[in-house]
Design brief:
- This protein is α/β, with parallel strands linked by helices and 566 residues long.
- The protein is 25% helix and 14% strand.
- The protein contains 13 helices and 18 strands.
- The strands form 4 sheets. A 10-stranded mixed beta sheet has the order 9-8-5-4-10-1-11-12-2-13, sandwiched between helices. Strands 15-16-17-18 form a 4-stranded antiparallel beta sheet, with helices on one face.
- Helix 7 packs parallel to helix 8.
Amino acid sequence: MAATLSQATLLLVALACNLAAAKKHIIFVFADDLGWNDVGYHQVLGQTTNVPFSTPNLDALAASGVKLENYYTQPLCSPSRGALMTGRYPSHTGIGPMVISMQKGYGLPPSEVIIPKRLKEVGYATHMVGKWHLGYCDHRYYPTSRGFDTWFGYSSGMQDYWTHVSGDYSNNPKNAGYDFDIGKAGSAVELVLPKSKYNGTYGLYAHIAEAVSVIKDHGKNHADTPMFMYLALQAVHDPLEVPEKYMTQYETAITNKNHRIYAGMVTAMDEGVGNVTKALKESGLWDNTVLIFASDNGGPWLATANNYPLRGQKATNWEGGIRASAFLTGPGAGLSSSVAGSSLHNLMHVTDWHPTIMEIAGVKSSAPNKLDGVSQWSAIAKGSTAPRTRIVYNMSPKSGPLHGAIRDGDWKLIFMSKVGGSAAQENTTQALPVGWTTNTPTVGACPASANGAWLFNIADDPYETTNLVSSNPSKYQELLSLFQQLQENAVPDLDSLYKTDPLSLPGTNQWNAYIPWNEKPNSSCSAWEEYISASWEEGGGDGSGASSVAVGALVVLALLVQLLQW
């Protein structure tokens, strides 16, 4: 009997070990501001005799996996990152459409449960390297308070690659401050002081070196534990800065200096991704790894990024602002032979990564908040039917003017093309990528709006050349009604509820750095306990769910009033 129990125990232990080994390592690489046409595998789709942007690592990874060619995101940094982490639209979290300013006292609401927190439920080690941009005024907004075991990176939206100074350091020095942090769960985040070894180290180098170090340590000491790494790259966001060696190969092909720097930044990023995959292979983790690569939004023209042939750029609701390069690859994905090396044209949104990653990791529990994202795992891995037909790109609350964009099937409706409310009809003709020999397709100038709106059939008109509001009034009315219906559950952008707080400025602390300021007297930083949640019905990719976002003003005072009444 004892022997039988012992054998049963050994069997259970073996089974548990096998189950643990079966869990996939998941690496999510988030590029910053990468243009649609700035990866090699998109450039070669055009008529070209010379493809100058060298991205051999990304091209090889994409070629062995599944390229997601109908993948959408948000037009700006914080909204995309919030949507990724929560699986919920900005109109349901309050993080967007604008980015989180370093001088404003809010962050991703604590009611939002993000990817690493849920992965911890099934035994994952969780690591973050790079850009956070989801709030920092209270230390409890930091990644290591939201489910990540470790974090090595910065809080802001952009910073100098060499000095790691964030803020408007060119035009407004008083807003410039050091922003480089290292944190572990359960411990205070440590500010890396300006005179550290990282001052003068190119930001991409520092982040890739940390990612490689974490991977090697995991392979050596924790190989039986599944790992999730969120590698939120600084590249290729401005400022335009890169080591000289990455520019030399473009001296002949690219005469514009800024564009030559940008090309070098893309190539440096590609090399960094190659170093990460090399570390995974050398550490024995690659064979059980799923690697996801995506850009957080379209590229900005000011930084010479190129989204051709898509109209528009970062910070707009045109295709060039919200359609991004993305792929999934890695031996651990177990892609069927029919999909490996293919391009998937199913409709997909950045919110879908949250439930997709949960399915890959084997998380069975229900999400604490209802998700707008839907799992795309079967569609990607097996080529099954697309689970999504609708996307809410941006949406103003019911009380405000019509602003935003939605997609329903092949149809897209836009109110105000620019994030922030501008309805200016800019000429959004995209220049040809360097090396292209013919202007195919021809995108042309921006079509005029009708009733302050644009309506396109994206399947027939992917470059948004013909506004159909006037010629198809019934479809316009149908999507307008849908937009107004979805507005019922949209919440305000938290950015609109906060003013710039002078207590946030680096000059108010001895380190001249961006650090939490919630404990300073009269701070506008939202105390963690101030947030409230509202129960809501289930969403499911169509934006119909209401929000659990924290948007109540003077909630602490209200609670005190209730206590007095008791």
